[in-house]
Amino acid sequence: MTTDAAAVSITDLSKRFVRGDVLALDRIDLDVQPGEFVSLIGPSGCGKSTLLRIIGDLIRPSEGAVLVNGKSAHQARLDRDYGIVFQDAVLYDWRTVVKNIALPLELAGWDRKRRDTRVREMLELVELTGFEKHHPWQLSGGMQQRVSIARALSFSPPLLLMDEPFGALDEMTRERMNNELLRIWQETLSTVVFVTHSIAESVFLSTRVVVMSARPGRIAGIAEIDLPQPRSPETREDARFADHITQVRRLLRKGHALDAPEEDETPLYVAEEGL
Amino acid sequence: MSVQGVVVVPRGTLGARVGRGVVDWIPAAAVLVLGILAWEGLVRGLDIQRFLLPAPSAILDTLWERREELQAAGIYTFTEALGGFVIGCTLAVLAAIVLARFRSFGRALMPFAIAANAVPIIAFAPITNQWFGPLEKTSKMAIAAILVFFPVLVNTLRGLTSVRPQSIELMRSYAAGEIEIFRRVRIPSSLPYLFSALKVATVLAMIGAVVGEYFLSSQEALGFQIRNSAALFQFELAWAAIVVASVLGILFYSSVALVERLTMSWHPSSRAD
User: Fold this and answer.
1) Is A153 a residue whose pLDDT tops 90?
2) Which of A72, A73, B12, B15 is the most buried (most CB within 10 A)?
3) How far is A228 from chain B (nearest CA, A)?
4) Cα(A27)–Cα(A20) distance, rounded to whole angstroms?
5) What's the confidence (pLDDT) of residue A267?
6) What gap in Å lies between CA A198 and CA A144, rounded to an integer?
7) How buried is residue B119: exposed, middle or buried, by Cβ count under 10 Å (0-12/13-18/19+)?
């Protein structure tokens, strides 16, 4: 990892899907510094998941450049510079918890002893010790997602990409996972780019919230979240927490107004549920 | 755990599992025994002509008397079915792998494979008999192999290609190449599809071998025995040979099912409850 290089640097990036001729992302510029926790939030169709996939070199941009740790996104993927977590845990049913977490390590050619040690550390990190031999379908949704996070972090990538990782979990599990994620972020010192539909989640977790507008996907505004670190469940009761939520909500409404007349919040939520 | 019947054994031990297994099978076993008894009673009570339907006891007698002959015939025919199964399934899996790697190729050929599934391929048996020699085992292996080829190909290809896109994206995020993705994701994901095809294939292979023998075959073969004894009004012998073919078919199917269970012990469907 080059010093001084931004963790993610996006310049003038656009993505047009040939099928349907949709402009998914329109001239995006964004820098993420090492150690930041940046959330991307916006209505469905704003291209936030597409943007995440472009950073991960899983989709190619139509125009513009993406640098990850100072190298091309493609090179960064080949160098295993990031771990990714999806909304669905995407665990492999035929592998036990241990073997799911060890998969990227196997692919990176780690020997067995080193893998075992590392997997044990990861299980401790996500508090799943004792579930080594379980298969994914024997775990709850929250536990599955913890395995998925452990897997993404197992090879210590400097960057963690998360695509609505807690979107399928119930509210209580989600809040607990948010607390755990912040603890993990602080312990591993990684950079996080986090896609979410939830305003409260984005404010609670992030150092910055990037608000996007839909069709075409543009950055409508960026909210700096100056809530004190480390954050705790009490953070949610902080007056500034409510202020930031209002700030993000206003940016969302502004973004929404870019291609539609002024509307109240309800249609926005309807649109969000669509994804 | 609810108490089932009189067999109360501690949960989790081998004894418990066998015990519960036995309890589960009692209804089916009862139906089988009752069915055979009813058959026997019906044939005796109504004095049904033996060329219409021999009594189970008569079939059993014949089965015992002609056991050496029937055993040899069974082995002969099973060898053909097994040979055809192995050849057909191997070729089908290899073809599926090639078609999964080269998608446009697969898309061009898939309609034909599916169409072939709808064709009564057994109709080709007289032709394959002539091609590979009617008295040779090879000719029956050929028809059995063709019969199993298409369903195994279509199912395996479906398994290899219906992997969730995110599973592939995840592998790519770990810088895995196509071969790694194939080995670690596509092949394991396709196993449930493959095994359901292989189980169907055991049945098709037996049908191919036996029906192929009906047309023309060595006198040693089971199909020949069935056809010949029926033609000579030796119905007990024909039925005895059918029983042999059925038992072999069931054993063949069950052994593939057993391999499936052992290979896919990770699969949610194999969870014991």
Assistant:
1) no
2) A73
3) 33
4) 19
5) 37
6) 21
7) exposed
Q: Closest approach of chain A CAs to the CA of B14, in angstroms?
A: 20
Query: Helix %, strand %, coil % for chain B, to 5?
Result: 80, 0, 20
Cα separation, A97 vs A190, in Å, equals 23
Residue type, A9: S
ipTM of this complex prediction, to 2 decimal places: 0.83
- The partner residue sitting opposite B175, judged by closest CB among A77, A86, A94, is A77
The DSSP code for A233 is G
Please state the rounded mean pLDDT for residues A258-269: 42
Tell me, yes or no, if B180 comes closer than 8 A to chain A by beta carbon: yes
Q: Which residue has the tokens 């997997």?
A: A119
Q: A204 and A231 in contact (C-beta within 8 Å)?
A: yes
Q: Which amino acid is at A118?
A: R
SS3 of B112-157: the string is HHHHHHCCCHHHHHHHHHHHHCCCCHHHHHHHHHHHHHHHHHHHHH
Distance from C-alpha of A229 to C-alpha of A8, rounded to nearest angstrom: 22
Contact call for residues A222 and A210 (beta carbons, < 8 A):
yes
Nearest chain A CA: its distance from B189 CA (Å): 8
For residue A272, pLDDT beyond 60: no
How far is residue A23 CA from its own chain's centroid? Answer: 22
pLDDT at B35: 93
